[in-house]
């Protein structure tokens, strides 16, 4: 399986970033241009739960929605999804994404590294790596900084 990674530094503690990412109401308000809604279709966010992401106008020309099954959760640190439906599933099978929030050493109460990692196999040999998905994910994570001022 192929892999792609990226990260951004956020000016918020990892614990706060984690809470924002896991809360459907909050995550849906962070950057509606990129993510217009999130809802747990099944479960409460633990392994086996299904979460539907509806993407906003800023990325819907690439992916409109993504149904994801939560595989693994490290509370306060990371969550791994397998995409089981939506546009990404038509391009990559499997496609697994992990979002991690890692405290910055010495500045644990102020900063964290938000990391995105995908493991994937393209359905067709002509399908490019998911660079658009990486760029969208990292852009979305970076918008946590602006939103948290009002949170």
What structural category do the secondary elements indicate?
alpha+beta
Mean pLDDT: 93
Major sheet size, sense and barrel closure: 7 strands, antiparallel
Query: What general outline do the C-alpha atoms trace?
Result: globular
Main sheet: which strands, in order across? 1-7-6-5-4-3-2
Number of strands: 7
Query: Which strand-content bin applies to the residues?
Result: 35-45%
Low-pLDDT regions: none
Number of helices: 4
H-E order = EHHEEEEHEEH
Distance between the first and last residues' Cα: 38 Å
- Tell me roughly what share of residues is in helical segments: 25-40%
Radius of gyration: 15 Å
Overview of the structural elements:
There is one protein chain. A hairpin with an 8-residue loop joins strand 6 (92-103) and strand 7 (112-122). Strands 1-7-6-5-4-3-2 form a 7-stranded antiparallel sheet. The chain has helices spanning 14-22, 24-30, 87-91, 131-147; strands spanning 2-10, 35-42, 50-55, 65-74, 78-86, 92-103, 112-122. By secondary structure, it is of the alpha+beta class. The protein has 4 helices and 7 strands.
């Amino acid at each position: 399986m192929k892999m792609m990674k990226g990260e951004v530094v956020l000016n918020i503690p990892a614990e706060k970033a984690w809470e924002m990412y896991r809360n459907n109401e909050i995550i849906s308000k962070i950057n509606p241009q990129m993510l217009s809604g999130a809802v747990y279709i099944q479960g409460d966010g633990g392994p086996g739960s299904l979460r539907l992401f509806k993407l906003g106008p800023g990325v819907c020309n690439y992916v409109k929605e993504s149904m994801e099954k939560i595989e693994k959760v490290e509370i306060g640190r990371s969550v791994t999804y397998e995409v089981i439906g939506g546009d990404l599933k038509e391009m990559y099978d499997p496609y697994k994404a992990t979002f991690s929030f890692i405290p910055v050493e010495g500045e644990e109460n102020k900063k964290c590294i938000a990391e995105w990692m995908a493991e994937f196999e393209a359905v067709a040999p002509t399908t490019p790596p998911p660079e658009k998905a990486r760029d969208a994910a990292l852009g979305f994570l970076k918008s946590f900084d602006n939103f948290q001022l009002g949170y």
